[in-house]
Amino acid sequence: MLFIRSIVIQDRSVELQQLRYVVAVAETGSFTKAARRCLVVQSALSHQVARLERELGARLFERTSRSVRLTPAGAAFLPSARQCLDFAERAAAEVAAAVGEVRGRVVVGVIPTVAAVDLPAALKVFRERYPQVRVALRMSPSHELIEQVRQGVVDLAFLGLPPGARAEGVRGRELARDEHVAVVAPSHPLAGRASTDLPTLAEELFVDFPAGSPGRLQSDQAFAAAGLEREVAFEVTTAELMAGLIREGLGVAVLPSRYAPRLSGVVTVPVAGGPSRVEHLVWSTAGLTPAAAAFLDVLGVPAD
After folding, report:
1. What angle do CA 62, 63, 64 make, to 5 degrees?
2. What is the pLDDT of residues 87-130, one digit of tens each?
3. Would you state the CATH architecture of domain 6-97?
4. Which of 104, 155, 278, 304 has an alpha carbon 20 to 30 Å from 294's alpha carbon atom?
5. pTM of the predicted structure, to 2 decimals
6. 3-class DSSP string for 80-127
7. Integer angstrom CA distances of residue 223 from 207, 210, 229, 244, 273
8. 176-276, superfamily in CATH?
9. What CA–CA distance (Å, rounded) separates 261 from 283?
10. What is the CA radius of gyration of the chain?
């Protein structure tokens, strides 16, 4: 097993455990909660953070009786601390892989409406094959996930992009293409129709994703290409909340046909000439960790 205990910065030693403590305090906003997460007593954690601050010659946290906040120096230090921890974990995982073990952690980014893969089923298989790998799921819009993959924060990400759009600065595979359907309340006049079209939908109020996001762009482009304008009355970040507003009769939406049936209490209607999207799975150009490569294998997605 490979042990990486410390990093030397200008002849000073910074221990990885100290970095873990700093990250825990920053993420929990509390020395008490951080100590609980790290399974140490608070006094030991506080001592190590203070020792690190002395080594660095700067305070990382502003401490008051009610809160703990990062100082400007702490905010500058945090990304590198996380990166060092990730590199150490990846190094240990690479050594384990060399002797036939897959371990460590894989961070998977997903859009709210991923449909090309049955993710829970895939994760079940992955867990059965690789029980020593920890999985972290991060839900964000496609454009944010692309940046997170580029930065190394996320190992793999499922995206939904308009046809012809490219995910720049990452590697990946196209998974599926899908047409959108109208999503309406059961009592809506369109609910009983066999199909509808964009001119008819343009007369409705819409519930949609935030302006500028790829999920919104797919619909915006389709209506613009048809020379139509529509009114988006509500912007939301999840399809489940979107469905709730639709059930209350506050608007309609257009969503991928493979995802929309998962929403309860709404009706879907095919849309002639409606929006479409392409789902992708992407990863870093720097390569894959053993755990991420194993996840691709479970999905049956080639990494070449």
Report:
1. 125
2. 777 776 666 666 566 778 899 999 989 999 999 999 999 999 99
3. Orthogonal Bundle (1.10)
4. 278
5. 0.69
6. HHHHHHHHHHHHHHHHHHHCCCCCEEEEEEECCCCCCCCHHHHHHHHH
7. 15, 16, 7, 24, 10
8. Periplasmic binding protein-like II (3.40.190.10)
9. 28
10. 23
Q: Where are the domains of the chain?
A: 6-97, 101-175+279-299, 176-276
Residues 31 and 64: their CA atoms lie apart, in Å, by 11
Residue type for position 101: E
Asked whether this chain's domains 101-175+279-299 and 176-276 adopt the same fold, the reply is: yes
Spell out the residues 6+ positions from residue 226 whose beta carbon is closer than 8 angstroms to its own: 198, 199, 273
At a CB cut-off of 8 Å and minimum separation 6, what does 59 contact? 53, 71, 73, 74
Angle at 158 between CA 169 and CA 291, to 5 degrees: 85
- The first and second tokens of residue 267, run together, are 């009706």
Question: For residues 179 and 196, what is the distance between their CA atoms, to the nearest angstrom?
Answer: 13
Report the run of H or E that residue 8 belongs to, with start and end. Answer: strand 6-9
Measured CA to CA, the distance from residue 221 to residue 228 in angstroms comes to 10
**b/e string for 52-62 if b means 16 or more Cβ within 10 A?**
bbeebeebbbe
Length in residues, the chain: 304
- The token pair at 25 is 């305090």
The letter for the amino acid at 127 is: R
Q: Strands 104-110 and 156-161, how do they pair?
A: parallel
Per-residue pLDDT tens for 260-290?
999 999 999 999 989 999 999 999 998 888 8
Q: Comparing C-alpha atoms, which of 278, 284, 257, 299 is closest to residue 160?
A: 278
